[in-house]
Structure formats: structure tokens, C-alpha cells
Amino acid sequence: MNEPSPLAAARAVTVEHARSLARSGHLAEAADLLEPLCAEADPGTAPHMLLACVYAQQGRWWDADRIWAAAQELGMGTPAVAAARRRVALLGEQGRRSAPWGRWLPAATAFLAVAALVLLVDVWRDDRTIREASAAPPVVSPRSSRTVSSLADVRPEVAGAQVERSAGELSVTFPRGLFSRGATLSSDGRATLGRLGGALRAHAGRLNVLVIGHTDPRPPGPDSGFATNAELGELRAAVVREALRSASGLSTSAFTLSTLADAASAAGDGRSARTVTLRISPAGAR
């Protein structure tokens, strides 16, 4: 097997770096990395498809649609891409014909957000080419020393939660899970989030929280009310946001929602997979 050229390897590393940023909710930074690559890469390739998903997550639906259209013209589209494009077209058509906008825009936008998350899960899983390149370099930020110190007094270590500290970020996981079924919090899960919110309350004005929903690998049942695991993971993230917002005093704008659905093997199976991951960072760091 031929080794990738240095240029191809460098591009693969950049795509993986952007993928990692997108997973963490750093969408603007991911777009900044991908846009120069896409100016040189062929339509339908990994940089373009990842950038389209990033645009969709940012609400830039027509920018995403332009990339998806180019991929479809080359026969490289997927059913998920086709479904998302149909919704974008419907969004434009209803925007021209309907008034007031408020009657249809929230529902259409919510559907597209879930569609984008489904596409992102697919893109995140497609690491075969990336693994042939070297690992992505660490993010070097001039804020590093400042952000580390600004989180030093944030103590989210509460019963039921596990905390890992890294440069400028706290990762909080819940080994015993949070949900009894679907998107219904268990009594233990609700109590854990209440304790965590109380620990964050003193810092409510200076934190951002990325909430990443997880599910187990089994597809939702026909009576579950969820079409896909991505939809279930997104709703779990939203439920946790509301519980934490109420307990901590953080504003809704301090939260970003995402999902890996069943793509994160670290989430485990069964009860332990009915959970979320939190990534807490200083306000303004994203």
C-alpha cells in the first residue's frame, strides 16, 4: 500500500483537527480550518462534507446546501443529504409564501438541526483515511494559562459525576448514566444534575457548557417516539441543559447542544449509555 504524500497527510491531519473541534462544539474554528482546504479540494470529498455539516450546525443552511448540491451532482450524495436538502428547499419555499415566519421557522430549523447532527455522526465515524495520517497536533492557544487558572476554582466533583481536567476545559461524565429510559431522567440522574448545578452556581456568569448526548447502539423502537439515535441523543442533551440551567443559574445562551448518538464507544451500553458528556470552558473561550 502506498503511503500518502506529505501534502495529503498534512491535509488529513487538518481535517482530523477540524473534526475534533466540531465534536467539541468549536464550530467557527473548525470552519476556519476547513474553508481553505475546500478551496483546493474536489467537491464531495471529506473536507467539503465536514464543512457542510459544520455550516448546518451553525444555521448556515444555504451554505451547507451549496456543498451538498455539488456532491449530489457528482453522485456522491447520501439519503441523509437528500433529506436535508429537501428540508432546506422547503424552508426557502415556505419563507416566500408564509407569514408570519414564527409559525413554521422554529419547527423547520429544529428538524434541520437534528438532520445536521445525523450527518455529523456519519462524518465523525468516517475516520479510515484520517487514521493513515499522523495524529493531529495539539491546539496551541495564547489563552491557555489564563483559561486554566480561570477554571481552577470551579469544582464540579459531585457524587455521581466524574471530572477530568485539561487545559482550558473540564470534562464531566456520568458513569452510572442519567436517564431511566428515552429522554426521562432517573431520580438519581436528576439528583446528580441538581448537585452539579449547585456546584456551578457561583460561577454561572463566566462558564460555557457543551452538552453532548449519548445513546446505546440499539436503534429506537417503533413506539419510542424517536426516529433515530441522533434525535434521542439531541433531546437528552436538551433535557440535561434545562435541568442544569435551573439548578445552576446559567443562561440558556451559555449552553451548546450536540450529540454523538451511539458513536462514542466510551459511553458504554445499557444504563451507562443513557447519558451525556459535559465540556465546561470559560465564557469567551469558544
TrEMBL record:
Keywords: Membrane, Transmembrane, Transmembrane helix. InterPro entries: Bact_OuterMem_StrucFunc, OmpA-like, OmpA-like_sf. Residues 166-284 form the OmpA-like domain. GO terms for cellular component: membrane. The keyword Transmembrane applies. The chain crosses the membrane at residues 104-124. This is Type VI secretion system protein ImpK.
